[in-house]
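Hey, quick one: can you model this chain's 3D structure?
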Amino acid sequence: MAQTNEVVDLAPAAPGLVPDGGWAIDHRVEQKTRSRDSWGLALRRDWRMYTFVVLPVISLLVFRYVPMFGNIIAFRMYIPGGSPVGEQWAGWSYFQMAFSSPAFWSVFWNTVILGVLSLVIGFPLPIVLALLLNELRSRKLKKTVQTITYLPHFLSIVIVAGIVLQLTSVNTGGINQMLHWFGIGPINFMQDPSWFRPIYVISGVWQTVGWGTILYLAALTTIDDGLYEAARIDGANRWQQTWHITLPGIRPTIVVLLILNIGSVVNVGFEKVLLLQNPLIYSTGDVINTYLYRVGIQTGQFSYATAIGLFEAVIGLVLVVSANLTSRKLVGASLW
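Sure thing. Here's the predicted structure for all 336 residues.
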């Protein structure tokens, strides 16, 4: 029986092939080096394209990140005309002042209610409109509906507020004139606090619902038509095709926009509320942003207003992060 003699090489392993993980380390270093080389090559090759990013980045830094330094006066006593970082340390006193103020909690809950109503009512409607437009077979009718629903988005907030005030006017408003035809007396819409929230939400939906359908219509075009053909062969009706094919196909877009909208629940639009509100409807129409305008700009309580604004920003950040984590665990899609 033949015998084989095995020769064992006791020489040390070559560099980069050490069995104790050195190879993996060297491999990662090599990957990073290649990544830097490829980034540098792309930058040298397409530097003209990257120049378009310079101005937006500078704008973002100047108008978004640099002003964050001003949040320090939420913890320091700031006097107009004095030091830009405040005169002396105040700690959490301004936050305690806000949390102990009934006026702050009133505007806080007004903001939350308006934000939640806008989210619950305004967020699903663009999805529904996009699904309905997707079912239209007449291209002319589809384009007409799209154009009509898109137009309000391009109107200024001032114009929208003016239209709302004209329609709800007691004497000459179109709504009160129609109510008069049915024998109903005029209603002081903009002087009754109970009407402010419905008017704000309805006018917001009218202005944004058409524009919000653009992303969903674009997402619908990415769905494979073969899936619908297979579903029809299996006997699925239009509702079943929508539920099992269309909605799952646009789910990533829905999730991303939902997370972004949840983060803005406490950031109710300042301009529109300011233009529509008056002291008679402060009980339901005063929100955090308009309250900050009065106490911060008009009365000069800058540190107090900054503390409230910082609290609002933290709430928005917590909502975005929480919504993102929840979406990742439940549906497997997230913003990051």
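One thing worth noting: The mean pLDDT is 85.
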